């Protein structure tokens, strides 16, 4: 149970830091070569998944535009359900990814990572979060 709670806290606080890949944040953790290699492989896997997600988001936008000219409550509800399912899938994937990251780090590195995340809270890769929000869009 403790590991699950830790993974959840870690993932929610670190999502923005990992959005652009394992960079400066992980440099401060003094990773071994093996850890760095494992994290890089995870990042590459995540990039592939994000490409598929981008296609799904584009399809969602096309369906949304189509509703503007041919609106029906049934179609709108179906689209809303699709968006909710996509958000759930993305959240679960992010949590799984963070759990996998957590498994690569030592306990000391995990604690240091959480400390770094707290220090950098509210900052994205360019000093603030995209669009001023703390979480990326769900779809």
List keywords for this structure.
139 residues; mainly alpha; 5 helices; elongated; disordered C terminus
Structure description:
The chain is mostly helical and 139 residues long. It has one domain. It is 74% helix and 0% strand. It has five helices and no strands. The chain has helices at 2-18, 24-27, 33-69, 73-104, 107-119. The model is unreliable at 4-21 and 133-139 (pLDDT under 50).
Helices and strands, with pairings:
Elements: H1 2-18, H2 24-27, H3 33-69, H4 73-104, H5 107-119
SSE ordering: HHHHH
Count up the helices.
Answer: 5
Number of domains: 1
Average pLDDT across residues? Answer: 78
Largest sheet: none
Q: Tell me the distance between the termini.
A: 29 Å
Which percent range describes the beta-strand content?
under 5%
Structural class computed from helices and strand pairing: mainly alpha
How many β strands by DSSP?
A: 0
Radius of gyration: 17 Å
Give start-end ranges of low-pLDDT stretches. Answer: 4-21, 133-139
The shape, in one word, is elongated
| Share of helix, binned | over 70%
């Amino acid at each position: 149970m403790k590991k699950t709670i830790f993974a959840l806290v870690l993932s929610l606080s670190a999502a923005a830091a990992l959005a652009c890949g394992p960079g400066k944040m992980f440099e401060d953790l003094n990773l071994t070569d093996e850890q760095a290699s494992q994290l890089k492989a995870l990042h590459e896997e995540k990039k592939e998944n994000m490409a598929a997600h981008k296609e799904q988001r584009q399809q969602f936008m096309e369906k949304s535009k189509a509703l503007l000219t041919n609106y029906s409550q049934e179609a709108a509800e179906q689209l809303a359900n699709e968006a909710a399912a996509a958000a759930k899938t993305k959240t679960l994937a992010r949590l799984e990814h963070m759990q996998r990251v957590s498994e690569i780090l030592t306990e000391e590195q995990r604690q240091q990572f959480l400390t770094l995340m707290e220090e950098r809270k509210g900052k994205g890769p360019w000093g603030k979060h995209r669009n001023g929000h703390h979480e990326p869009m769900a779809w």
